[in-house]
Design goal:
Helix content: under 10%
Keywords: Calcium, Disulfide bond, Lectin, Metal-binding, Signal
Number of helices: 2
Family: Belongs to the fucolectin family.
GO molecular function, one term: fucose binding
Number of strands: 25
Pfam families: F5_F8_type_C_2
Largest sheet: 9 strands, mixed
Shape: globular
Structural class: mainly beta
Strand content: 35-45%
Radius of gyration: 19 Å
Order of helices and strands: EEEEEEEEEEEEEEEEEEEEEEHEEHE
Function: Acts as a defensive agent. Recognizes blood group fucosylated oligosaccharides including A, B, H and Lewis B-type antigens. Does not recognize Lewis A antigen and has low affinity for monovalent haptens.
Length: about 325
């Protein structure tokens, strides 16, 4: 019997399967909730393929147990994607890093639709390939249904095989049948810290099928009824754009900070996040191309306020701010 460890993970969903050859999976349950799942350790990429518009209106959830799809309601929501996902990679990050063993991608809405994935990555840190370990690669994956293309089952495992080809007709992508509430699930085999997901939409055709979805994280799985208990990482309304898309499990709010330089004072925009550690704040900065420094104030119990300081700010002036107990320049941990 497997005894999962509790860790934090990040999820990267890319609808491709690792290598630069094309192959996809597809699910079969027409008129029934379609899902896909996989066992992961941290981050996973997902890619979209041929009929790209079929990847749309879905969720990513994380859980710690799995029995059948009725348990999906208990999975935590990591992120949701409304609309059609773009061709290529899409990154989805949880509103805040989540702890869980199972990462779920589920379609939302009452309309019948498909769910297709070419590769899914789950990460516990920065949402970029090579920055952190892809926890999803090679892990058990499941989905609500599976279609057969050219005598080949477009199984859920095709989204975690390391092949990043975005053509379903090269048998590198997963695909469900037409139906409501279709989902894909990956089992990380242990509880991990989930920071977000990166999704790559199909590039051969039908990219608008990736739309209106959520990413959720949970610790248990019995059946899809448990998905409602999964924590929401991120959601995407509408059709996903062509190319790569990142969704982070980080809730942000835009604020303005007064930066004084001698007799000069200006207001600069910045993002304020609620995170669990300085490391999370630093990772968020690395994921934001405008961020050059951070201010962090922690109140204990893994609760910290993180300020992402933009490139327009003078880091020397911001470092003098006494309202925070930690400062990091350019996310290089220079205090």
């Amino acid at each position: 019997m497997l005894v999962p460890r509790l860790l934090f993970v990040g999820v990267t969903v890319i609808f491709l399967d690792g290598t630069l050859c094309r192959a996809c999976t597809q699910s079969l349950a027409k008129g029934k909730p379609a899902y896909q799942s996989s066992t992961l350790y941290s981050k996973y990429p997902a890619s979209n393929a041929v009929d790209a518009e079929r990847l749309n209106n879905f969720e990513v959830r994380v859980g710690t147990t799995y029995v059948d799809n009725s348990s999906f309601t208990q999975y935590k929501l990591c992120a949701s994607y409304p609309g059609v996902a773009p061709v290529g990679n899409t990154c989805l990050s949880c509103g805040s890093p989540l702890r869980g063993r199972y990462v779920l991608i589920i379609k939302v809405g009452s309309d019948d639709s498909y769910l297709q994935l070419c590769e899914v990555e789950v990460h516990d840190g920065a949402l970029c390939r090579g920055c952190t370990q892809n926890l999803a690669k090679g892990k058990p994956a499941y989905q609500s249904s599976t279609i057969i293309l050219e005598l080949v089952r477009l199984a859920a495992s095709l989204a975690v095989d390391g092949n990043y080809d975005d053509s379903m007709y090269h048998l590198s992508c997963t695909h469900t049948d037409l139906g409501q509430g279709q989902w894909w699930l990956v089992d990380l085999l242990r509880t991990e810290r989930v920071a977000g997901v990166i999704i790559t939409n199909r590039g051969d055709c039908c990219s608008d099928r990736l739309n209106n979805f959520e990413v959720r994280v949970g610790t248990t799985y019995v059946d899809n009824s448990s998905f409602t208990q999964y924590k929401l990482c991120a959601s995407y309304p509408g059709v996903a754009p062509v190319g790569n898309m990142s969704l982070s499990c980080v809730t942000t709010s835009t604020t303005f900070k007064r930066v004084a330089a001698g007799a000069r004072a200006t207001l600069v925009p910045m993002s304020t996040l609620n995170v669990g550690s300085r490391t999370e704040c630093s990772i968020s900065c690395l994921q934001n191309w405008k961020c050059v420094a951070i201010n962090v104030l922690c109140a204990g119990n893994d609760q910290c306020v993180c300020e992402l300081l933009p490139s327009t700010a003078q880091s020397g002036d911001l470092q003098a701010d006494t309202g925070y107990d930690y400062y990091e320049d350019n996310c290089l941990e220079t205090v």
